[in-house]
Design a protein that fits this description.
Order of helices and strands: HEEEHHHEEEHEHEHHHHH
CATH class of one domain: Alpha Beta
Radius of gyration: 22 Å
Shape: globular
CATH architecture of one domain: 2-Layer Sandwich
Number of strands: 8
Structural class: alpha/beta
Distance between the termini: 16 Å
Largest sheet: 5 strands, mixed
Strand content: 15-25%
Bound molecules: zinc ion
CATH superfamily of one domain: Ribonuclease H-like superfamily/Ribonuclease H
Strand order of the largest sheet: 6-5-4-7-8
CATH topology of one domain: Nucleotidyltransferase, domain 5
C-alpha cells in the first residue's frame, strides 16, 4: 500500500475549496452563449466584423476565416476553444465519434484521410496522432466535469473488471439513481490503491459522499470505501451470497466490453484511461436512457446539456471553462 490518509485529507480540502469557488461560477450549458460569438481581440466588439477571405495554415491543410474589425481595424482569426486546434473541427469531431463507437485508432486515421480527400483537402493522421487527440479531449472534458458537477447521492456502486489480454484492471464507480458513470480508473494491479483512486475521483466530481456505497465483498474496495467515504453506510455482499446487489455496475461492465476495441489497441495504461474517459463522457452526456425516461445521466444529475448540441459544443464549453478556471484545474491535476 503506497498511499496514505494524507491524500484523503487533501481531497477533502480541495473539495471544500471547489465548493466555495464554484458557488461563484455559473457553469452554463447554453450554447447560444455570448462566448461562442466571434469577438474582436482589439476592442471586444462582436458586431461590425467583416470577413476578409481565408488564410491557409501551413502545418495542416486547413483554412481559417480571417476577420477585420470595422471599429478598430484589427485583423484576426477567431480563437478556438478546442483541443488540438490545428486540425479542422470536423476532424476532431469524427475522431472522437468513431473512437467511442469502438473503432481502432488505425482505422480512424485511414478513414479521416479518405474523408479529407473526398472533401478536397489533405489531412494526414497517424494512429499515434489519433491517440494524442483522444488524450487531449479526454483531459479537457474530465476536468470540465469537475467544475460542472455537484451532487448528493443516495447510493454509489463500485466494482472492477479485468482486461486479460491487456493485463489491465478497470475500477468503476457509478451513481445508482442517475446511472451517472462517475469515475473509471485503469491500473496494472488490483489493489487498494486502484479502488482509492476511483473513489477519490468520484468524490472530486460529485463533491459529496453518498449515503450508501455498495460493493461485492472485495477487500480492497471495502478498505477504500471506509477511507474515502467514512460517513457512508457500506453494504458489501459477495456474489455467492446475493447476486445482483451491484446490478448497475455490472450492466455498465457489459456495455464497456462491447465498446472497447480489440486488444491490439490502447496497450498503455494512459491511452486506455483516456479512451475510457471519453467513453464515460459519451455515455453520460449523449446516451438517452430508457430507464431515465429518455434523459441522459448528465441531465439526471442536473447538467442541462442537450445531446443534439453534439461533441464540438461540449468540447468548446469544456475548453472555455477549463481555461477560465485554469488555477483551480492546476490544483486538481496535482491531486489525482
Ligand atoms: Zn475591434
Amino acid at each position: 500500500m503506497t498511499s496514505t490518509n494524507f491524500d484523503d485529507v487533501y481531497i477533502k480540502l480541495l473539495v471544500d475549496r471547489l465548493k466555495n469557488e464554484l458557488r461563484e461560477i455559473r457553469i452554463s450549458f447554453d450554447y447560444s452563449l455570448d462566448f461562442f460569438l466571434i469577438r474582436c481581440p482589439g476592442c471586444g466588439s462582436t458586431d461590425g466584423l467583416i470577413k476578409k477571405g481565408v488564410r491557409r495554415r501551413r502545418r495542416r491543410e486547413e483554412t481559417v476565416q480571417l476577420y477585420k474589425c470595422k471599429f478598430c481595424g484589427y485583423k484576426f482569426t477567431p480563437e478556438s476553444y478546442l483541443p488540438g486546434t490545428y486540425f479542422p473541427e470536423w476532424v476532431l469531431e469524427e475522431v472522437v465519434k468513431l473512437a467511442v463507437y469502438g473503432l481502432s485508432p488505425g482505422y480512424i486515421a485511414k478513414h479521416i484521410e479518405e474523408d479529407s480527400k473526398w472533401r478536397g483537402s489533405k489531412v494526414t493522421l497517424t494512429p499515434r496522432t489519433v491517440i494524442n487527440l483522444l488524450k487531449k479531449c479526454a483531459k479537457v472534458l474530465s476536468e470540465f466535469e469537475i467544475l460542472a458537477l455537484q451532487r448528493r447521492s443516495d447510493e454509489w456502486q463500485i466494482d472492477d473488471m479485468v482486461q486479460r489480454r491487456r493485463a489491465m484492471f478497470i475500477t468503476n464507480v457509478i451513481d445508482s439513481q442517475t446511472r451517472y458513470w462517475i469515475s473509471t480508473h485503469v491500473s496494472r494491479e488490483r489493489n487498494v490503491n486502484a479502488s482509492l483512486k476511483a473513489l477519490r475521483l468520484a468524490i472530486l466530481r460529485f463533491k459529496f459522499e453518498p449515503r450508501v456505497v455498495k460493493c461485492d465483498g472485495l477487500k480492497q474496495h471495502i478498505i477504500a470505501i471506509r477511507r474515502t467515504c467514512p460517513n457512508a453506510k457500506l453494504i458489501s455482499i459477495t456474489k455467492k451470497e446475493a447476486f445482483g446487489i451491484i446490478n448497475q455496475i455490472e450492466s455498465q461492465h457489459s456495455r464497456i466490453r462491447k465498446r472497447v476495441p480489440r486488444s491490439g489497441t490502447f496497450r498503455t495504461i494512459e491511452s486506455m484511461q483516456s479512451y475510457l474517459d471519453l467513453l464515460r463522457i459519451y455515455y453520460n452526456f449523449f446516451c438517452q436512457l430508457e430507464s431515465l425516461n429518455g434523459k441522459t445521466p448528465a441531465q439526471a444529475v442536473g447538467l442541462d446539456f442537450k445531446p443534439e448540441y453534439g461533441w464540438l459544443t461540449l468540447m468548446k464549453l469544456a475548453g472555455f471553462y477549463t481555461r477560465k478556471y485554469e488555477n483551480l484545474i492546476k490544483l486538481i491535476d496535482l491531486s489525482v
